[in-house]
Structure formats: structure tokens, C-alpha cells
Amino acid sequence: MAKISPIQFFRQVKQEVKKVTWPTKNEVVRTSIMVMVLVAIAATFFFFVDQIFGWVVKLIFGLGV
């Protein structure tokens, strides 16, 4: 592998960063809200599944309900 100087490396990085298509503020806000909503839905789902499993385990082992 060819060795390049740190200065050349940072020049190449700068060129590559210019090629990136950055999301707009609106896209960032919309996708962030979607992520938060989906996390809330998943957390609620797993909370109820955990409660049901806990209840079933208590029934199986007779630890009282």
C-alpha cells in the first residue's frame, strides 16, 4: 500500500466530503421524529410482552399473581 503524507490525506478527505449529499434540515427533522416514534412504539410493545411473560412465569412457578 502506498504511503501518503498527512497533508495529502486531508486534501483527499476534503475532496471526498465535497461529494457527499447532505440531508436538508427538513429531512433531518422528519427522520428524527420517525425514529423517536418507532422507538416509542417498540418500547411499548416490548414492555407489554415483558409483562405478559412475567405473569406467565409467575403462574407456572406458583409465585402468586
Summarize it:
This protein has 65 residues and is an all-alpha fold. It contains two helices and no strands.
Notable traits:
65 residues, mainly alpha
Q: Give the biggest sheet.
A: none
Spans of at least 5 consecutive residues with low confidence: none
Oligomer: single chain
Helix-strand topology string:
HH
Strand content: under 5%
Specify the number of helices: 2
Q: Indicate the percent of residues in helices.
A: over 70%
Structural class: mainly alpha
- The N- to C-terminal Cα distance equals 66 Å
How many E-type strands? 0
What radius of gyration results from the CA coordinates? 25 Å
Question: What spatial form do the alpha-carbon principal axes imply?
Answer: elongated
Q: Calculate the mean pLDDT score and round it.
A: 92
Structural summary, described in words:
The protein starts with 5 loop residues before the first helix and ends with a helix. The chain is built from two helices and no strands. Helices cover 78% and strands 0% of the residues.
Q: Would you spell out the secondary-structure blueprint of this structure?
A:
Layout: H1 6-19, H2 25-61
